[in-house]
């Protein structure tokens, strides 16, 4: 198997019975995916706005018990949705349940309805990024203080592409950077990230690059640009894995 990893984001929307999601996790692991992600929202992001939806972190704990090989995480957790010390403790606990397979995905948050209906302050993009910048060191400090410690060094995945603030946080805190965009855009943002890394004295090669699956005809270009994690998103109720199978076939041919 090559260094390239294939993830699947099993979006917890439009599945009226949790068993549909549990089955999709089983099918994904059996198919050979490297990582099973969900997302941290409280309402559907596409399709019927009032459709079925389940919560992220309680689901990750169930996945940790259900699976035996795949890495697990949220793509991504909303940075302002939980006290950061609590989030660190939740992550540590799920990491132990999984035997050391958790990825701590986190971002600044953006879906206004989540904030309004659950009583969080939406603020501005700038204020949400400032909060994320305050929370990341607190998460790291709590992870270092917990007893027992995490089952492994929990890798932090930061999602976002803002060049002045988000990528600076990636340079300081992330093991993996997840971003959206075409190849030219992501090549440019990688250059910006490298400059931020230089400013904080970090080797940009320490940070893995992640993006959505671009299709087999385009994937090699992203690999050449340093991207090694590709994720396919799929929703309920069917959780169709055909595109995941295509990505896995491409990975295994490398």
From TrEMBL:
CDD domains: Tetrahydromethanopterin_reductase (cd01097). GO terms for molecular function: alkanesulfonate monooxygenase activity. Pfam families: Bac_luciferase (PF00296). It comes from the Bacteria. Residues 14-211 form the Luciferase-like domain. One of its GO terms (biological process) is alkanesulfonate catabolic process. InterPro entries: F420_MSMEG2906, Luciferase-like_dom, Luciferase-like_sf, SsuD_RutA_monooxygenase. Keywords: Flavoprotein, FMN, Monooxygenase, Oxidoreductase. This is Putative F420-dependent oxidoreductase. It comes from Bogoriella caseilytica.
